[in-house]
User: Which sequence fits this backbone?
């Protein structure tokens, strides 16, 4: 057990990574396999590594073309799926595997960049229909979901999307949720402690949300510690009379980040009941807000 715990600590610091060229024909080097080289020390250590499924489940796509071997060694442990367009850490076979096994995910991270197709030079997305694969799904092991989608210069037929026409994903253990230029409804979760909704000015998909919807989302997440709403604050003046004095209590909130024009921010503020020591960051009428803060 001690050696297994040491391997787990090493795995967090020394993760496997693809070779610099990323070629399917290039064999991984000893340096590129990260913590896995511990399994090469001796037979006993190899058996310990093979007997620790979570180690392999966390690294499912870390080595190109090895995800099926990783999945076999992960056994029943929940997977971590990472698709990062900035690092080129994705392949079509990986996407198909993730789609087929999405109900076994503990962590899903998708980060797009302004990628250019090699032949057409047009922008494209890493996993453009990820929201469809999440909508309505039972996700019993999902704890962290990060979708940062790049829609700049992506031609869409329906620029305005009815967010709540989709069935919600059911993820009772969801703790961390971050959406950038995308949205998928989720069922209420007392476990959610981090919520980030960002809509950039350059997005091709202009999401709209009704005031009652944003209040309902916040009310369904009473244990939030961090709340970030950037470009996502609706006009609260359109609330029906019976909802105009509806208060949302967030007794555990420690950080609040808002970005919008003055009146929506003030209107939303009047509906929030927060601790006196909450750390508040507000940006008014400032274009180009970023994910990393102000």
Assistant:
């Amino acid at each position: 057990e001690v050696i297994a715990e040491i391997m787990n600590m090493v795995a967090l610091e020394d993760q496997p990574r693809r070779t610099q060229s990323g070629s399917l024909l290039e064999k991984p080097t000893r340096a590129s396999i990260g913590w896995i080289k511990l399994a090469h020390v001796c037979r006993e250590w190899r058996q310990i590594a093979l007997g620790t499924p979570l180690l392999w489940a966390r690294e499912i796509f870390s080595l190109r073309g090895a995800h099926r071997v990783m999945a076999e060694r992960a056994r029943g442990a929940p997977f971590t799926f990472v698709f990062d367009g900035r690092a080129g850490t994705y392949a079509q076979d990986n996407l198909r595997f993730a789609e087929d096994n999405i109900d076994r995910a503990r962590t899903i991270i998708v980060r797009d960049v302004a990628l250019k197709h090699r032949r057409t030079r047009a922008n494209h997305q890493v996993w453009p229909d990820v929201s469809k694969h999440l909508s309505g799904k039972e996700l019993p092991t999902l704890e962290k979901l990060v979708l940062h989608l790049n829609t700049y210069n992506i031609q869409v037929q329906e620029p305005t999307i009815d967010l709540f026409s989709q069935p919600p994903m059911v993820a009772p253990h969801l703790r961390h949720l971050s959406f950038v230029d995308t949205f998928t409804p989720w069922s209420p979760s007392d476990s959610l402690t981090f919520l980030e909704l960002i809509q950039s000015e350059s997005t091709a998909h202009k999401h709209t949300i009704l005031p009652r919807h944003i209040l309902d989302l916040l009310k369904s997440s009473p244990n939030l510690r961090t709340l970030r709403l950037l470009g996502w604050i609706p006009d609260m003046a359109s609330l029906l009379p019976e909802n105009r004095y509806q208060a949302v209590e967030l007794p555990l909130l420690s950080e609040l980040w808002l970005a919008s024009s003055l009146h929506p921010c003030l209107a939303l503020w009047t509906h929030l009941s927060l601790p006196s020591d909450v750390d508040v960051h507000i940006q008014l009428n400032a274009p180009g807000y970023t994910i990393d803060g102000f």
